[in-house]
Amino acid sequence: MSESGNASLRQVWRNREVRGLLLAQVGSDLGDQIARIALTLLVYQRNHSLVQAAATLAVSFVPAVASAPLGSLADRFPRRSVMIVCDLARAAVIALLAFLAVSGTPILVLLALLLISELATGPFSSARTALYGDVLTDQSEFAVAQAAGRMVNLGAQVGGFVLGGIVVQLMGARTVLALDALTFVVSYVFIRTHVLARPSADEPGTSLHRLWADLRLGIDEITGDPLKRPIIIFSWVSTIYFSAPEAVAVGYHGHQSETTSGLLLAAAPAGSFVGAALLSRVRLPQQVRFVMPMAALSCIALFATSINPPPVVAFALWFIAGTMTAFVITIIASVVQLTRPAHRGRVIGVAFAGFNAASTLAYLLVSWIAESLGAARAVSLAGFVGLVAVGVTAVVWHQDRLVDVLTTLAGQGTAAPAAVEEPAVPQH
Predict the structure, then answer these.
(1) What total number of domains does the chain contain?
(2) Whether the model pTM is above 0.70
(3) d(CA 21, CA 117)
(4) Contacts of 34 (CB under 8 A, 6+ apart)
(5) How many CB atoms lie under 10 A from the CB of residue 140?
(6) Does the residue 203 lie in any domain?
(7) Residue 418: inside a domain, yes or no?
(8) Which of 176, 209, 367, 393 has the maximum number of C-beta atoms within 10 A of its C-beta?
(9) pLDDT tens for residues 371-383?
(10) CATH at residue 218
């Protein structure tokens, strides 16, 4: 531990299993992002429609919504095995997508294959997030590992968006997609060689009835918990401004180049990468106190886009906004800490499904508004809606109670309490 009592990234990196999970994520996430920008640029070049281009980005979120009931697979089966099967399945489907990515293939066929491959994303993400809690029983180390995972994801987004436009111009979409398939093989190798086999966290085996029962339990654990409920719902609502820059980036200024589009797409993720690196230096209970101020500053930066600045200024504003959205790692880590280990897969699955559903709607809504009012006004409107959400959440959220519970858990390990009582409403 550091003098502040918080684990360091270097300390967490020494753990072989964490290192394997992070290296696996580097490959698969980077390949995914390059493939998404390749398809997005292809769609926009064919019809110059922001709505259809944004829909191409949003399509990757849809399967995660549909696969919400599959989140409990990360509880009912060994989490390492779930990740391995998902990697092999995605490698096979993306390889087929690369084979079919020729000029005569309808866009809908390519998007359908992308949808199928993304169906594995839900259970894979639930298993990986829950597995960090199994590997690291110290709350401080766990929080840093979550931040590191978020940084890998954001770094892959930045690299994918920046390199995507360039790589597509140089190598073509088929080569890009073939490379994406290989990244899942790389992920499989790291998980297979670095992560230890563990038994399932809950009673093994599943069925349609059990999947449905587990889904309902995950929903009940979120809606019935006064500490999880407000922060998860806030993260869902926040997608309206999380997604706004990416929803309009490829058509922000008329006839901008593919490279400019890639840079604008990368602005918010690049900022969030920096924010995650800085936030990882703070203990989880203290991070909670930064959530609302960071969210408000993010919205204000996006609202400033109303002046319709040139791309270089828009990049700067969106970078600042992205830096402040790093609070999402605090929400993820807090939810995992508040959930008993045997139920983490299904709770995370529901939380991720809601976030992805909201992100899909946000992409489509912001791009639709952009075609009517312009990209800059659409982003600024999203920032205003976000500010309203921050104000409402600040009133109903019992922040101090969450800080106290996380502080208590930090001294007990990561096992969540059997139940969290409804906090008393403060008297004024």
Answers:
(1) 1
(2) yes
(3) 20
(4) 159, 160, 163, 164, 167, 176, 179, 180
(5) 20
(6) no
(7) no
(8) 367
(9) 888 888 999 999 9
(10) 1.20.1250.20
